[in-house]
Amino acid sequence: MNPDVKAFFHKPTFTVSYVVSDPSSRKAVIIDSALDYDNASGRTATTAADELIDYVKAQNLDVEWILETHVHADHLTAAPYLQEKLGGIIGIGGVVKEVQSTFKKVFNCGDDVAEDGSQFQHLFRDGETVEIGGMTLEVLATPGHTPACITYKIGDAVFVGDTLFMPDFGTARCDFPGGDARTLYRSIRRILSFPPETRLFMCHDYGPNGRDFAWETTVAEQRADNIHIHDGISEEAFVKMRTERDATLSMPVLILPSIQVNMRAGHFPKAESNGVSYLKVPLNAL
Q1: Burial per residue of 33-63, b for 16 or more beta-carbon CB atoms within 10 angstroms, e otherwise
Q2: Residue 60 per-residue DSSP state
Q3: Angle formed by the axes of helices 181-191 and 235-246, to 10°?
Q4: Which of 76, 89, 141, 279 could form a disulfide with 121 if both were Cys (CB 3.0 to 4.6 A apart)?
Q5: Are 152 and 69 within 8 A, CB to CB?
Q6: According to the model, what pLDDT value does residue 270 have?
Q7: What integer best gives the mean pLDDT of the chain?
């Protein structure tokens, strides 16, 4: 059975979140939610998350899972807020432990951050499956952008996180700690081995060259037209392109707050004696 997919575009961070539901049982999952965050003031809001909640309630859906494709570096997850309002289990790939270990040192978190993934309720392994009503969700390890990236396949719909973008924008950067262009190439070829008609859903879109924002494509379209990794692009050529391109890129605007919150499964650092939670800015560390 193929799922119903409802996309929500968060323009401040160019993030696409998804509510994916079984048409018969009304069971659902939420993938890659976004919390509103103003970097200048440090204020958060739940406007985007509330849109997902309103949709879930209007459609009478039962949310069983709140899923992350990876520890995002460009937006904050709204997973704990959504769980509070809708229920569901927060899940991510089990290799998140490596990401926590790396960035715990960058932010000098001490005992405030466990490195065992225990902030999440479930850690997925490659090849794991779970039932969502009458549908089966399959987990694929697709590292490269980060070591902990995973892809979710539900029926004919595949949610690729940051591995791929729309064909005219290409592929994810690999210069974050633990990233690797050669690994990303192999992960993407794994995704592109699905049948040509398989639907692929992106986590971001930036509307290059002024086109309208878009986030759904197919395996066939990616294999024919992706500017970085269409059929015929060798692994060596991809690694050379990706390495040279990544060397020119600036850090994402929200990488510092995003990583600190997302490696905690969306929870803020513990409040200090004045009742306020603080995020750190490590100097000359990234």
Answers
A1: bbbbbeeeeeeeebebbeebbebbeeeebbb
A2: T
A3: 120
A4: 89
A5: yes
A6: 94
A7: 97
Burial of 230: CB neighbours in 10 Å, binned 0-12, 13-18, 19+ = middle
What gap in Å lies between CA 194 and CA 209, rounded to an integer? 29
Residue 105 has pLDDT above 90, yes or no: yes
State whether the Cα torsion 159-161-166-170 is positive or negative: negative
Share of the chain above pLDDT 70, in %: 100
Give the 3-state DSSP-derived string for 68-126, with helices as H, strands as E and coil as C.
CCCCCCCCECCHHHHHHHHCCEEEEECCHHHHHHHHHHHCCCHHHCCCCCCCCCEEECC
Contact present, 217 and 226 (Cβ < 8 Å): no
Domains of the chain: 4-259 (3.60.15.10)
pLDDT digits (tens, 9 = 90+) for 43-85: 999 999 999 999 999 999 999 999 999 999 999 999 999 999 9
- 36 phi/psi in degrees, rounded to 5: -70, 135
Beta-carbon contacts of 32 under 8 Å, excluding residues fewer than 6 positions away, are: 15, 16, 17, 18, 67, 68, 69, 72, 77, 159, 161, 203
* pLDDT for res 51: 98
Which residue stretches of the chain are H helix? 47-58, 79-86, 96-106, 181-191, 219-225, 235-246, 255-262
Backbone torsions φ then ψ of 106, nearest 5 degrees: -60, -40
pLDDT of residue 286: 82
> Strand pairing partners for 7?
18
Q: Distance between alpha carbon 32 and the CA centroid of its chain, in Å? A: 5
Instruction: In whole angstroms, give the CA distance from residue 25 to residue 215.
Output: 26
Name 28's bridge partners. 21, 63
- The DSSP-derived string for 253-265 is TTHHHHHHHHTTT
